[in-house]
Amino acid sequence: MNTTLTSKIAERRTRHVSHCRAAAILLLLISSSLHAALEISPWVPVFTGIDRAAATNKPPTSQFSSLFVAYALRVDLKAPGIRLFITPKAAKYVLNSAETLGQNVSDFLKTHQLQAAVNGGRFDPAEYYPPAGTRLDVHGLVVSDGEIVSPQDTSSDSAVIAFSEKNEPVIIQKNWPATNTAGIFSAIAGTYPLVSNGALVANLNNQSGFINGVNPRTAAGISKDRQYLYLIVIDGRQNGYSIGALNSETAGLMILLGAHEAINLDGGGSTTMVLADSTGRPQRVNRSSAVADSGRERIVGSHLGIYALPLVGFLDNIRVQPDDTAATVTWTTASPATSAVQYGIDEQLIASTSPNSTLVTQHAVRITGLSPDTGYYFRVNSSASGVNQVSTTQYFTTTNYFVSRMLSEIEDSWRYSVGPFTDSAWALSTFDDSSWTEGPGLLWTDVRSTGPNPDVMPRGAEMPASPMRGGFPFQAYYFRKHFNLSQVIPGTSLGVTAFVDDGAVIYLNGKEAYRLRMEAAPAVIEPVSLAIGFPCDGDATCTDQFTIAGEGADSLVAGDNVIAVEVHNYNPSSPDITFGIALEERITLSPPVVLGLANGLSGVTLSWERPGFVLEESPNAGGPWTQVPGPVVSSPFKTLPGTGNRFFRLRR
Q1: Per mean pLDDT, which range of 91-95, 401-405, 432-436 is the poorest?
Q2: 142 plus 47 within the same structural domain
Q3: Total structural domains in the chain?
């Protein structure tokens, strides 16, 4: 970093010291209770040099007053492969007019093949959804790969985070008059400082005005030793989930995460953090309020992106082989270690296999008691020399062996009502729905000025919006349909393919059978209850596929049945609701697994078709049985010539 630049920055920092001491006293008074009250997850590696964490604040149990959910990245700026990348100049660049081409954060990551990205600073014109590629004028200093994209030409938007070509970071609390840019390779401007010299300065800013209220936020910070970059996004404007944060709360969270200096970048509906999946596709980390309202990420003028190498560390080669009610997870470790797998139907991972304390480098763990045709999240754990290593969270879907028969298609007609209903009597098979309106799927309402999303297809009957809610959709719609089963035998289930925007509760013959993106039982679902998530990019442009089985299918009867569904919006101001279901009768089978054996001159080859099994061997037919070294979890397996009898079997 340029020495002149460094000295000027140091001078500016001293101006904040007296103010920072007062703020530090405030922070010290609250920090002891914050650690206990604010839930911050452990840092989990996602790329080489990039760790991810999440934080949840639930008043009134915390000194922070706002309900918020935040997501954070910690970037080791000295890690191999780490490189910062800022939105570059637009083609046909025009200073202070057409400096960059607008993109949403997901497209920015995909276009430049980055591993992580967040939205940057402010820009003009401040339209929410201009066409991608619109020429925009970004505010404050922006430097991309050593080239100035936007000079610092105003005293506003003058908080800057900058990096040398060697990733040496510095935060300029107020870049006005404009600092010499010599030595700056990457830079992006924010609105104002949050943390200086380890102390909160956000409460010294003017707290009046909309921007300083409780809002979604994006912020950047650096550690005291300048090795780590911290990026956080705080979701907001979503009651019951996360309303956002004040400047002081954002600063306090930054300090707790490890930042010694930090600035506010931008926020509101633009707040977005994206990571690349294993195939390079962008995956949003947070729940953008803009996506919740409109189904689309906002176009922004500047972004902060990161290149990083894949994780190659202690845990490697993670593979999963799912069957219908079991799965085998395998992985390797750099040295002998224990084995365990955490798993669950969501990323809370509430279940775990029993830890295997045998120290090995080739690991195989069987997960049993799973449901067929169900998605599961999982991560592996291995401990060695007192250090526990945890993988990133991954995903698999169990198989399902069944014969099937279609009961209804997406385009079929349903009876519907806007209710509201305060109990589930409307879902009973005996309920009289003759006064309800009938229409073919997809059933929908969409009051956006731009019209319904053309990708939501096939559109059938349009449902009414609520004149009492200013033309917005009702917060819940109710649907009913009859279907016939010739028989119900053990293992009968219903396969569901659904277009649902946003959440739903499904009943069979009046008994609740399944919740999709609604608060889990025993929470009571009221007509004003909101969904806790949304499909795809906020519109019903992709299907939800799941199976109603076990207790959920217990109320099925031979003959006439009724499926009833209540659909809820994610946000009171969401402009659309969509519903359609294809229903399939499934009778589960349990095909046998056959272990084949073929003799050869160089040994015996064993083979089998179904996954989720481990090969075991014994010198006697009655045991004792031990795992074949490896362990062997996939077919085929060729044994080496040996002496004496050896018996083999498969075990789940």
Answers
A1: 401-405
A2: yes
A3: 4
The answer to whether the peptide bond before residue 502 is cis (omega within 30 degrees of 0) is yes
The owner of tokens 């005005």 is: 209
| DSSP one-letter code for 593 | P
How many CA within 13 A on the CB side of residue 236? 21
pLDDT tens-place string over residues 568-591 = 998 888 899 999 999 999 887 777
Reference 32, options 202, 197, 255, 214; nearest CA is 255
Is residue 34 over pLDDT 70?
no
Q: Which strand (E) or helix (H) includes residue 22? A: helix 3-37
DSSP secondary structure code for residue 10 in this structure:
H
**Nearest residue to 138 (alpha-carbon basis) of 277, 334, 301:** 301
The last residue of a domain, from among 364, 397, 430: 397
- CA–CA distance, 285 with 482 (Å, rounded to integer): 39
> How many Cβ atoms sit within 10 Å of the Cβ of residue 389?
17
Closest CA to 487 of 586, 408, 559, 563: 559
For tokens 């059938």, what's the residue? 460
Q: What is the DSSP letter of 403?
A: E
User: Which residue carries 């819940």 as its tokens?
Assistant: 476
- CATH number of residue 503's parent domain: 2.60.120.260
Q: 325: Cβ–Cβ under 8 A, 6 or more apart, which residues?
A: 368, 369, 370, 371, 372, 398
Tell me: do 190 and 264 sit in the same domain: yes
Q: Looking at residues 639-652, what average pLDDT do you find?
A: 79
Dump pLDDT digits (tens) for 536-550: 877 898 889 888 988
Range of the domain at 533: 402-588
344's tokens: 């669950």
Same domain, 441 and 332: no
Cβ-count burial of 454 within 10 angstroms (0-12 exposed, 13-18 middle, 19+ buried)? exposed
Give the DSSP H or E segment for 498.
Answer: strand 492-501
Q: What are the pLDDT digits (tens) for 507-542?
A: 999 999 999 999 988 899 999 999 988 888 778 988
The β-bridge partners of 220 are 231, 263
Amino acid found at 278: S
What is the pTM for the complete model shown?
0.55
Q: Is 21 exposed, middle or buried (0-12, 13-18, 19+ CB in 10 A)?
A: exposed
Q: Which of 567, 565, 540, 579 is nearest to 475 (CA)?
A: 567
Contact 390, 341 (CB under 8 A): no
Distance CA 122, CA 12 (A): 23
Rounded CA separation 624/618 (Å): 6
pLDDT score, position 61: 64
CATH of the domain at 351: 2.60.40.10
The encoded tokens of residue 107 equal 């497209």
Q: Which two tokens stand for residue 75?
A: 């970037």
Q: Which two tokens stand for residue 141?
A: 């200093």
